Each structure stands twice: as structure tokens, then as C-alpha cells.
UniProtKB/TrEMBL annotation, chain A:
KW Repressor (keyword) present: no
Provenance organism: Acetobacterium tundrae
Protein known as: ABC-2 type transporter transmembrane domain-containing protein
InterPro entries (alphabetical): ABC-2_transporter, ABC2_TM
Major location category of this protein: membrane
Keywords assigned: Membrane, Transmembrane, Transmembrane helix
Location of the ABC-2 type transporter transmembrane domain: 61-313
UniProtKB/TrEMBL annotation, chain B:
Pfam families recorded: ABC2_membrane
Residue span, ABC transmembrane type-2 domain: 20-244
Lineage: Bacteria, Bacillati, Bacillota, Clostridia, Eubacteriales
The keyword RNA-binding appears for this protein: no
Stretches of the chain forming a coiled coil according to its record: none
PANTHER family: NODULATION PROTEIN J
Membrane topology: Multi-pass membrane protein
Transmembrane segments: 21-41, 53-74, 94-121, 133-154, 166-184, 218-241
Major localisation: membrane
Membership in a protein family: Belongs to the ABC-2 integral membrane protein family.
Compartments where found: Cell membrane; Membrane
Source organism, top-level taxon: Bacteria
Record protein name field: Transport permease protein
InterPro entries: ABC2_TM, ABC2_TM_bact-type, ABC_2_transport, Nod_factor_ABC_transporter
Length: 323, 247
């Protein structure tokens, strides 16, 4: 087993460029998460257009308001620079927005002098959940990438030699998994703490919590990519399928931002996604939910990971050992 | 020219008969746009729907992904042996990779256009009405750029799988920075500046301006830069492509 780990390490060191790239991307993802979190504010950005670029009434504090005398282009609404353009001509307010009707109604109410609860629509996610949400996609992708040595063994038929060697197939797969796990887990954790100290930022969770949380997702990423590589006969197929699945499902699970008002059927489908369960767990932990409320998601995630792992072992054994 | 046509034709057939590629260049963008559009439709109003936003941004994303297709059509194990034979025949080496660029460009352009038409008919993505031709043109140019990028990376890194992994991470990063998955502009001046570092941002801004402001100030410069970069990539590929690497 140790020799496989050593061998994996040597093979990975041949691809220094890839290591540097992965580390850079992880760093950027963490920085982005911290940065965005400290800069997100309130209910949105609003361009307030008045005749002379001045506005003397009190402004609602929960918005980030830019006062101008020239209306911004409509494409800036679409690209998300502004959530709404409000034109005030002598007290008559007209609102231009591409957001939903609720948003328009609350704006209308606010700018004609009424008060509403200003919390509507704000994102309550904590910094820790956000960082992990951003990291999740990269960690899952890393898993898919790092398992290439197993795929390589399969493609180049090295695995048939392993099959006749005294090393058991389970141990062989387990070694690859440990290697992949360590190489997702350790660099990510290290970078996270380096960024934390450099940017002097609050990252939400404590070190033991991060070890637990990142450990879980690293293990899951490992199990998933082992499963994928066991099913696919070519490393390329596994890689491309893997990245497509990871990107689609991670986005669906709401790792970057949570979706609102989806449709019921789709929400059911999404609730099956392991990433969703993971985010529920992380979010629950951060907002201090009782342990029995978040345990089911954790249980679901671990059992799914275990199933992936077992299926991968059974399938590989079937393909290469007993035939 | 006859020789080039033969190679080009074969490359095109290789791409078009691979179900994986057909899925990747039609099914993937369609699914991506339909799912994300559907999920976010709740937070958008009726005037501009979520499909209008994600239809454009995810299309840019998939167009960037062409790079992995061209990389694959160039250095897939199956095709490498074919390339090997061409190297031994009296054909300029330029034909080998240029035909790959062209074939993946033609193949993906057809697939994406088809996906775009489906999106226009089913969820009524606004591709700009009469300006739609320019939007399409810009995306086609970008597609050509992606194809040259994929081949250049292959020439430089000499391995298809490294290229693919590198590209897919790079593209995802550029896409996130460029605000393709979720709008970044609203997050403050600093983020806006960072997002302009991503060339993707320029393209999406150019397209949104074309569609929603009927403004084409960014169209010509963007098109010019993309074309220039594509030519540069081809020249670089010529420099980096070494026949010995196949041995």
C-alpha cells in the first residue's frame, strides 16, 4: 500500500504544472468567497435617476444607491450591475427592473414613503457556508482529476498486473483513494488558512470544524471519482463526464447562491443531490441548528459515498479479478 | 488543397460520429440553460427572463468549452495514430492541426447554432432580434478562438488529458470571474474591476449591449481582438508543433 502511495506521489510530481494550477485555483476560489462575502450588502444596487443628480429625501439604508442624473443603459440591468433603475421626476416615481414582482412592489412601497421589513430577499448564508460552497465545486473537480492514475492504470492495462499480484484489489483501490483524498484535503485546508492569515479575514468555522467539513467533502469527492473511473473504460470519458456532472449538479445544489422559488418537482430532484445535503449540513452547523436536525443530511452523504466506494470496488473486481 | 480536404473531411466525420461530442455540444448547453434558467426564473420578471440571461452567458460558456473538443479531435489516442501516418506522407504538417481546428470549429458551430435555435423556439431566449446576426457572429468568432486555443494547448503541453484538465479549470475560472454563472457587477466596484480582467466579461458586455441597448461600440474592437488572438494562436501552434512528439 505504501508503495502505491509513493508511486502515486511520484507520478503526480511529474505533473508539476497541474499541481501549481490546482493550488492557484483553490486560492482564488477562497479569496473570491471571502471577498464577495465582505462586499455583499443589503437588498441590491439601485440607480436613482433625478433631474439634477440630487435627492434630498431620506434614503432606505438597506440598498446600495447610486444617484445620477443620467439613466444607466438597460444592459446594465441585465448584467446585474443594477437591480433596479428608479426615476424620480418631481416626486413621481417610476421603477424599471428585471426582477420579480415582489421586488418591484417593495421598491414601489419604499420610495413612495412607506416602510416595509427590510430583510426580505436578503441572503442569510454565513461566510463559512459560502466559502465551502465555492470550494465544493473545485474540490469535486480535483477529485475527478486526481483519480487519473487509476484510470491510467486501467487504460494502459497495468491493472491486470495488479490483479495477479499478491496485492488485493480492495487495497489497491483504497490506496489510490487515500492518495486522492489527501491531495484534495491537505492543500485546500492549508491554502484556506494561509488566505485567512494574509487577508486577516473571518472564515466562519474553527479549525476542527473545517477539518471535519473539508474532510467529509474530500472523502465524498474521492468516492465519487473512484466510482466514475470504475464505470468508465477510458480516463477521458470519466474526466469529461465527471466535470459535466460536477458542474451541473453543484450549481443546481446552489453552491454559489441558493435558488429561490423553483418548482416543486425540481426541488425534490435537487434535494436528492449529495451536494445539497452537504450544504444543508454545513449551513445548519453554522447557524447553530440542533445536531439531530442536521444529522440526516450527513448520514445521507456518508452512505452515498460508501455506496459509491463499494460499487467501485465490486465493479473493478468483477472486471479484472474474477473473470 | 485536395489533400487538405481529405484530412478535413475525415476529421469532421470523426467528430460527428462520436456520440459523446454530439451530446457535449448540443445536449450540454441545452440542459445547462434550461435547468439554470428554470431554477432562477422565480427571481426574474417578465420583461427579461432568466433564460435571456443564462441563454447568453451559458452559450458563451459552452462556446469556450469548444477548446476541449478541438484538443480532443487533435490528440485523442485513436486519432494520434492517424496523424502519425499523415506525418509520414508528403503533406505539410500545417494541415494536421489546421484541419483539426477547422473541423471542430465547423462541427461545434453547427451544433451550437442548432442548440441556439431550439432555445429561441422553446423558451424564447432573446438573441437580439435584428442584431441577432451580430451576436451570432461574435459567438462564432469566439468559437474559432476556442478551437485554436485547444489545439495550441495541445501543441504546447503535448498531452491531451493535461490540456483538457487545464482547460476545463481555466474556463470555469474565467466564466465565474466573467459573471457567467451569476452576475458579479452588483457586488461593488472592486469586483467589477476584477471581472473585467476576464476576457469573458468583455464579450458578455458586448453582447448584452448589442441586444438591450442596440449599441455596437464594443462589437468591432471585440471582434478584432478575438480574430487577432486566433491568428496569433495559429502562428504559435506552428512554432510549437513538433512532429517528433508523435514518436
Amino acid at each position: 500500500m505504501i508503495s502505491i502511495l509513493k508511486n502515486d506521489l511520484n507520478r503526480l510530481l511529474c505533473k508539476k504544472f497541474r499541481i501549481v494550477l490546482t493550488l492557484t485555483l483553490t486560492t482564488l476560489a477562497i479569496m473570491a468567497a471571502i471577498f464577495i462575502n465582505t462586499h455583499v450588502q443589503g437588498m441590491g444596487n439601485i440607480a436613482l435617476v433625478t433631474e439634477n443628480g440630487k435627492y434630498d429625501k431620506a434614503l432606505p439604508s438597506s440598498f446600495n444607491i447610486t444617484i445620477t442624473d443620467e439613466s444607466p443603459a438597460f444592459s446594465e440591468l441585465v448584467s446585474g450591475k443594477y437591480d433596479a433603475i428608479i426615476t424620480d421626476t418631481n416626486g413621481t416615481v417610476s421603477i424599471e427592473t428585471i426582477k420579480n414582482d415582489d421586488y418591484r412592489t417593495s421598491l414601489q412601497a419604499l420610495f413612495s414613503g412607506q416602510t416595509i421589513s427590510e430583510n426580505a430577499g436578503s441572503n442569510n448564508r454565513g461566510i463559512g457556508t459560502r466559502i465551502i460552497g465555492y470550494l465544493m465545486m473545485f474540490m469535486l473537480l480535483e477529485g475527478v482529476v486526481l483519480m487519473y492514475m487509476f484510470a491510467d492504470d486501467k487504460e494502459k492495462k497495468q491493472i491486470t498486473r495488479v490483479a495477479v499480484s499478491p496485492l488485493s484489489m480492495t487495497k489497491y483501490l483504497f490506496s489510490h483513494s487515500i492518495f486522492t483524498f489527501l491531495f484534495i484535503f491537505i492543500p485546500t485546508l492549508m491554502i484556506l488558512y494561509i488566505v485567512k492569515f494574509v487577508m486577516a479575514a473571518d472564515i466562519g468555522f474553527s479549525l476542527p470544524e473545517y477539518i471535519l467539513l473539508l474532510g467529509i467533502i474530500s472523502a465524498f469527492a474521492t468516492a465519487f471519482s473512484l466510482f466514475l473511473n470504475a464505470l468508465a473504460s477510458k480516463s477521458e470519458t470519466a474526466n469529461m463526464m465527471g466535470s459535466a456532472i460536477v458542474i451541473l449538479t453543484t450549481m443546481l445544489s446552489g453552491s454559489f447562491y441558493s435558488f429561490e422559488k423553483g418548482n416543486a418537482l425540481l426541488e425534490n430532484i435537487i434535494s436528492v443531490l449529495p451536494q445539497k445535503a452537504y450544504l444543508t449540513f454545513v449551513g445548519g452547523l453554522e447557524s447553530g441548528l440542533a445536531i439531530q436536525d442536521i444529522l440526516p443530511s450527513l448520514f445521507y452523504l456518508t452512505s452515498l459515498g460508501l455506496i459509491f466506494f463499494i460499487v467501485a470496488i465490486v465493479k473493478t473486481k468483477k472486471d479484472y479479478v474474477n473473470h | 488543397m485536395y489533400q487538405f480536404n481529405r484530412i478535413f473531411k475525415m476529421d469532421l466525420i470523426n467528430l460527428a460520429t462520436n456520440p459523446m461530442w454530439i451530446f457535449y455540444s448540443t445536449g450540454f448547453p441545452l440542459l445547462l440553460i434550461l435547468i439554470i434558467g428554470f431554477l432562477t426564473s422565480g427571481s426574474y420578471g417578465k420583461e427579461v427572463t432568466s433564460y435571456d440571461y443564462y441563454g447568453i452567458t451559458m452559450m458563451i460558456f459552452t462556446v469556450l468549452y469548444s477548446a476541449t473538443i478541438s484538443a480532443n479531435s487533435f490528440m485523442e489516442e485513436r486519432i494520434k495514430s492517424g496523424n502519425m501516418r499523415i506525418i509520414h506522407s508528403p503533406v505539410p504538417p500545417f494541415f494536421i492541426y489546421f484541419s483539426k481546428i477547422l473541423a471542430s470549429f465547423v462541427f461545434t458551430t453547427i451544433c451550437y447554432t442548432f442548440a441556439g435555435i431550439v432555445l429561441m423556439l422553446t423558451v424564447h431566449v432573446n438573441f437580439g432580434g435584428s442584431n441577432g446576426v451580430f451576436v451570432w457572429g461574435l459567438l462564432v468568432l469566439l468559437n474559432f478562438f476556442s478551437c485554436t486555443l485547444g489545439v495550441l494547448m495541445c501543441c504546447a503541453l503535448k498531452s491531451e488529458s493535461t490540456t483538457n484538465q487545464l482547460l476545463s479549470m481555466l474556463i470555469t475560472l474565467l466564466a465565474v470571474l466573467g459573471g457567467l454563472f451569476f452576475p458579479l457587477d452588483g457586488l461593488g466596484k472592486a469586483i467589477e474591476m476584477i471581472s473585467y480582467l476576464s476576457p469573458v466579461k468583455w464579450i458578455s458586455t458586448a453582447i448584452f449591449q448589442l441586444i438591450y441597448d442596440q449599441k455596437d461600440v464594443l462589437l468591432a474592437p471585440t471582434a478584432f481582438i478575438i480574430t487577432g488572438l486566433s491568428v496569433l494562436m495559429i502562428l504559435l501552434s506552428t512554432r510549437l508543433f513538433k512532429r517528433e512528439d508523435y514518436l
